[in-house]
């Protein structure tokens, strides 16, 4: 079977739970066609460089997939039909990475720096001073 990295962007107005249910549905498609999803990473809501289907932000998600091409084609077909998916990209790779992706490493690094500086970061990326009172 072939190895793939698949990233998809879901509309900003869907909830994180809905994104998780989409991930589970797409995992089911892959597994029912003889493949498996090795790793899933939700990168959160990020700003887009330009508007896509009238959206300025999107939920970014990465899937590392080990599946036959037919399974991937079926998953992509279902993503094309879904109105909640803005874009997706699938790349065939020689080997899947076991460690966190660069996006997750960046998030961890940013959170660590904010803790050291006494700041907090919310889901939208806003950085504000930590409130010590409560």
Question: Which keywords apply here?
Answer:
134 residues; alpha+beta; Alpha-Beta Plaits; 4-stranded antiparallel sheet; 6 strands; 34% helix; 41% strand; globular
List the helices and strands and how they pair.
Blueprint: E1 2-11, H1 16-32, E2 36-52, E3 55-67, H2 69-81, E4 85-93, H3 102-117, E5 119-121, E6 127-129
Antiparallel strand pairs: 1-3, 1-4, 2-3, 5-6
Describe the structure.
By secondary structure, the chain is of the alpha+beta class. The protein has a single domain (2-119), classed as Alpha-Beta Plaits (2-Layer Sandwich), CATH 3.30.70.60. It is built from 3 helices and 6 strands. It has helices at 16-32, 69-81, 102-117, and strands at 2-11, 36-52, 55-67, 85-93, 119-121, 127-129. The strands form 2 sheets. It has a 4-stranded antiparallel beta sheet, with helices on one face. It has a two-stranded antiparallel ribbon with strand order 5-6. Strand 5 (119-121) and strand 6 form a beta hairpin.
Q: Determine the N-to-C terminus distance.
A: 53 Å
The name of the CATH superfamily reads: Ribosomal protein S6/Translation elongation factor EF1B
Strand content: 35-45%
Figure out the total of helices.
3
Function: Binds together with bS18 to 16S ribosomal RNA.
GO molecular function: small ribosomal subunit rRNA binding; structural constituent of ribosome
Family: Belongs to the bacterial ribosomal protein bS6 family.
Protein name: Small ribosomal subunit protein bS6
């Amino acid at each position: 079977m072939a190895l793939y990295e698949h990233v998809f962007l879901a509309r900003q107005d869907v909830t994180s739970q809905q994104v998780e249910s989409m991930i589970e549905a797409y995992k089911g498609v892959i597994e029912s066609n003889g493949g498996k999803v090795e790793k899933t990473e939700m990168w959160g809501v990020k700003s887009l460089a330009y508007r896509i289907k009238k959206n300025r932000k999107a939920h970014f998600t990465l899937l590392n997939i080990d599946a036959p091409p037919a399974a991937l084609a079926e998953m992509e077909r279902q993503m094309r039909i879904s109105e909640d998916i803005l874009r997706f990209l699938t790349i065939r790779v020689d080997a899947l990475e076991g460690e966190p992706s660069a996006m997750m490493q960046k998030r961890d690094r940013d959170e660590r720096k904010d803790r050291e500086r006494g700041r907090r970061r919310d889901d939208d990326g806003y950085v504000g001073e930590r409130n010590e009172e409560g």
